[in-house]
């Protein structure tokens, strides 16, 4: 590499090191000059410079929340598209990486971010076996973020996307687990000793603390627990998207 290439490589390498720390990524993407420089050196420079610049952009593109900003930065999509269409033998690998990154950023244009809400379900005779079965049924449902169980109170607290209808969760548990479930309104009591904490106002105000109850006969024998566990069982999903 020439002296100019050495200086350019050192600059890009520093950006790559910064991008490896996720805490730096938002600031880097918001600085359009940084991103535009990385895009600029993707063409007409040494293989080492282009490879490092592409690696840096790939790191930035891994952050789903930042993809829309990266996509809108002037020159990014056009440059990736040009490199992806290259047929030069020495750029086969770079072209494939450009296509994948371009596809990720293009898809981010259709992503709609939703604010999560909490749904509290009361499930009579909830057991530890039920908790496993419930999570298996709900973990693949798009929009379900997390699931927390309290065996003592016989409740299941779900964090879901705001667009999800709580009654659809009741129906899933009825169909797949043969479990009765009730959607508990914010502020209503679960037992005579414990109160449910206030939840976001997403259910309509009605006289009954339960919006709707799906009574279903169990298709399997139900073993009553000799004593309730005193701690909650909790399962949390690492990512909102599938």
UniProtKB/TrEMBL annotation:
This is Armadillo repeat-containing protein 1-like. It comes from Frankliniella occidentalis.
